[in-house]
Specification:
single chain, about 260 residues, Rossmann fold
Length: about 260
């Protein structure tokens, strides 16, 4: 059975770094078959994972539309089969972790049929993995357009600011309106230093979200992010790594 973990939150909160750390910790806990889905059009999860960035789902969609309009799609092959082949070729294979990047959003053309087939293909591909970790762009409404899969755990990532926490609360409310089932929802507070101010603690309480963990500000991780070094090379002494390791254990234990 596949366990799907999605990360969301406003931009600039460190979702991608946390996603990469979570993937690293899953591997260290024995996971041997993980699909990392980069659902952010900026597509930089590959840097954190140390994997190349090849063709994206957005590239496949655009090429398919252009070829269909130009009459140059391969003959004798059903479009669904051709798309299935293209998606599987777009998966960057790593050691225990594979990467699929969603890429740019839809353009001005008609994509309904292609999008539906691509979503089904990505969902079918995901079922062959033990874990799927989805690094989302800011917001929640796009998630149901990317997948029809249920999300077992939704991690809402915020920085220690009122705006970030309120955005996380809004995303939690939107999650209930998606056309997919969302299981456990947690708040992760990233880049925190020192005790949280009382107004921020009150704002967290008012969201109704369970604060799973507070991840300290980590200058070592910040250096890795600024230089593009893979998270796999982060030393075990990193406080961010140590905290996400605790988060991973709690998630695996059903916390």
């Amino acid at each position: 059975m596949t366990t799907t973990i999605a990360l969301a939150g406003k931009g600039g909160t460190g979702k991608t770094s946390i996603a990469a750390l979570l993937i690293r910790c899953l591997v260290e806990r024995g996971a041997r078959n993980i699909l990392a889905i980069d659902a952010d059009p900026a597509s930089n999860l590959h840097l954190a994972l140390g994997l190349p960035l090849g063709q994206t789902i957005g590239d496949i969609r655009e090429e398919t539309l252009q070829e269909a309009q130009g009459g140059s799609l391969p003959t004798g092959v059903a479009r669904r089969d051709w798309l299935d082949y293209a998606v599987r070729m777009a998966v960057e294979e790593g050691d225990k972790v594979d990467l699929l990047a969603m890429g740019r959003p839809e353009g001005p053309g008609c994509y309904c049929a292609v999008n539906h087939m691509l979503r089904q293909i990505v969902d079918a591909l995901s079922r062959s993995y033990d874990y799927v970790v989805i690094d989302n762009e800011a917001g929640m409404e796009h998630l149901s357009r990317r997948t029809t899969r249920d999300v077992d755990v939704l991690l809402l990532v915020s920085d220690p600011t009122m705006r970030g926490v309120l955005a996380a609360g809004q995303m939690a409310r939107l999650a209930g309106k998606l056309h997919i089932r969302v299981g456990r929802i947690y708040l992760l507070l990233n880049r925190a230093s020192g005790p949280l101010p009382e107004p921020l603690q009150q704002a967290i309480a008012e969201t109704g979200l369970e604060l799973l963990e507070t991840i300290p500000l980590d200058p070592v991780l910040a250096e890795f992010d600024s230089t593009g070094r893979p998270i796999a090379e982060l030393p075990d002494t990193s406080v961010a790594y140590q905290t996400v390791r605790t988060v991973t254990d709690r998630l695996l234990n059903g916390r």
